[in-house]
Specification:
Number of helices: 4
CATH class: Alpha Beta
Structural class: alpha+beta
Helix content: 25-40%
Largest sheet: 4 strands, antiparallel
Strand content: 35-45%
Bound molecules: zinc ion
Amino acid sequence: MILTDQSILTQSSENIKPEEYQEVFNKLETVLQQTPNAVGLAAPQLGIMKKAFVIFHNGKIHRFANSRIVNCRNREDDEEACLSIPDRRFNVSRFHIITIKDDVNGLKKYVGKFARVVQHEHDHTRGITLVQSGVEVK
Ligand SMILES: [Zn+2]
């Protein structure tokens, strides 16, 4: 069940602890796989207020825990949608290249579409949705 309640989605999340990984990531991966065309899902979208998210990229699900942005460059605009904001599209400025440090992958650089989805899901763990970060496409 993916939440659309903006009063919950705009709250910031707590750090996730390693002993919570199994339960939280299993839930995220199950819902991601059951949702057609979904590329990413963050724990707050399931009402779990933890800094955790999953992304489907290159045929594989990637897990992220307690992500922090280390470096970023080259802003570019593109359209995005969000499972928590159904049937609307937003134009959002994101970084083309971003270096993230998180507790699963360590320090890693992401580029292009993957980088865009990482920033979208990272924002969810900070209580930021497309309503705040983007401009609606009418
Ligand atoms: Zn979203």
